[in-house]
């Protein structure tokens, strides 16, 4: 439960901050009534600062805004640290996401997303031999495909700086050696251009 409090707090903070800057940095489209900024583009690059600091993984994202209500993104995950902190270690993953925004601002604010992920890694099985007082480690590689969903909030400054906070949960579908449930907690920092 404690693991869910930080993402929930960040999402609530995003809604509050986003509601305070509703008309600050954009031009309202007369046809649609939606707020958009003509100076900013539709492309975004970002890095997940949370995974880099907390678990030593490089998680890079490219996002393309389709229109004011939706976007798609591709994320690449590389595990940089050799430390084993869990039974399952994901070494590499590629994720595709579709986001739908519920805001009058152009592709920012509160959103829901659906994702698919292909990941590979190792499943570590620890056995302890009490007779000889040694522990033995066995590992099996896995590659799997997951589907999932999540929620988040995105803030964009007038200069294009991006802060995107999200969390998601999915299920691996193909391999018995992989973890059944996959999760994503992201604090992406980047730039819209």
Automatic annotation (TrEMBL):
<protein>
    <submittedName>
        <fullName>Uncharacterized protein</fullName>
    </submittedName>
</protein>
């Amino acid at each position: 439960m404690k693991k869910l409090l930080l993402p929930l707090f960040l999402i609530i903070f995003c809604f509050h901050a986003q509601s305070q800057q509703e008309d600050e940095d954009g031009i309202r489209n007369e046809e649609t009534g939606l707020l958009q900024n003509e100076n900013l583009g539709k492309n975004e690059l970002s890095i997940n600062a949370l995974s880099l600091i907390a678990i030593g993984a490089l998680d890079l994202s490219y996002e393309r805004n389709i229109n004011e209500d939706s976007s798609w993104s591709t994320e690449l995950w590389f595990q940089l640290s050799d430390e084993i902190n869990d039974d399952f270690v994901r070494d590499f993953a590629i994720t595709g996401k579709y986001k739908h925004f519920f805001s009058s601002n152009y592709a920012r604010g509160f959103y829901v997303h659906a994702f698919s992920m292909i990941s590979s890694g190792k499943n570590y099985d620890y056995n302890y031999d009490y007779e000889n007082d040694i522990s033995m480690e066995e590992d099996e590689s896995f590659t799997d495909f997951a589907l999932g969903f999540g929620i988040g909030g995105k803030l964009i400054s007038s200069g294009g700086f991006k802060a995107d906070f999200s969390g998601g949960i999915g299920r691996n579908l193909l391999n018995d050696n992989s973890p059944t449930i996959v999760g994503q907690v992201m604090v992406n920092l980047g730039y819209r251009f």
